[in-house]
Amino acid sequence: MVNGSLTERVLAGDLRALARGASLIESDREGGRELLRDLFPRTGRAITIGITGPPGAGKSTLVSALIRTLRENGKSVAVLAVDPSSSFSSGAILGDRIRMQEHHSDPGVFIRSMATRGQLGGIASATLDLALLLDAAGWDFVLIETVGVGQDEIDVARLADVTIVVLVPGQGDDIQAIKAGVMEVADIFAINKADLPGVERLEQEIRFVQSLSGKNRDVSPAPIHRVIATKGQGIEELLSAAVSIFEEKGRARDRAGIWTARIREMLRERLLSAVPKSAIIEQSDRVARREVDPFAAVENLIRLALEGKGEPS
């Protein structure tokens, strides 16, 4: 049973209580869910922005610039930095304390690293829960910075109100990443390091791919903003665009669509957590030995998850 005072302290802005609540969510899924049930009526006020894109695009530098600008405008900011993790130890390799040191003494900034623990898509399983916790705690903006694994990194769109895809001129795989699916999740493209050669070509490539993917859709293409994060150039305009898109989504009643994606993700995680790893390994071994086909193995695991007991057949 979650201590009721923890909920009250989180709502009162107690940073120690917030850190404790975050640890509870990451380590004790049932206890974390109980805490979030208490807090959920107080959510819905924060703007959650996902920052994604290939490695080397300068996502962490951009996040730091966004924090600086938001704080200058009197807004509080929470950051979830989703780090790559060791497949053996599940520990984060990178750390927010290295990348965003200048903000750690600011009481209006809360930064927490999360390890992906080998999960595909670059999103830690508790990211959505932590975003809700921070929302309920009264933070104005929640920034989710993802790992940057390239083509597969689109899960952030399931969690964020607005998704910013960060690209940089001169990286040969940028347009391939866009074609592979990132184009579909971007609400905004931010071309970082816009003072480098090749920025015009990159913007033309983005617009070309947008023209192809938008032929059969009555949807405006995602805007493209040039920024130089190290100098703070273009950051105000980028934030204004993100807020405008958030407001447009609200007016268009897209919140239900966002929650459809979020609940699908939560359902997937809940079903996976209901199946012991040993059962998945057992079914995998049986498939490898050709004792059952993979479709039957999945059906067995679904039955096990729904029943919540017994062994798969």
Return the CATH topology of the largest domain. Answer: Rossmann fold
Count of runs of 4 or more consecutive helical residues: 13
Class from helix and strand fractions? alpha/beta
Number of domains: 3
| Topology order in helix (H) and strand (E) letters | HHHEHEHEHEHEHEHEHHHH
Q: Per DSSP, what share of the residues sits in E-state strands of 2 or more residues?
A: 5-15%
Q: Could you tell me the mean pLDDT? A: 81
Percent in helix = 40-55%
The shape is globular
Enumerate the spans where pLDDT stays under 50 for 5 or more consecutive residues.
Answer: 86-97
The first-level CATH class of the largest domain is given as Alpha Beta
Key attributes of the depicted protein:
alpha/beta; Rossmann fold; 3 domains; seven-stranded parallel beta sheet; 13 helices
Which secondary structure elements does this structure contain, and how are they paired or packed?
Layout: H1 4-11, H2 15-27, H3 29-39, E1 47-52, H4 59-72, E2 77-83, H5 96-99, E3 109-115, H6 127-136, E4 141-145, H7 156-159, E5 162-167, H8 174-185, E6 188-191, H9 199-213, E7 224-226, H10 235-251, H11 255-273, H12 277-288, H13 294-307
Helix pairs in contact: 1-2, 2-3, 2-6, 3-6, 8-9, 12-13
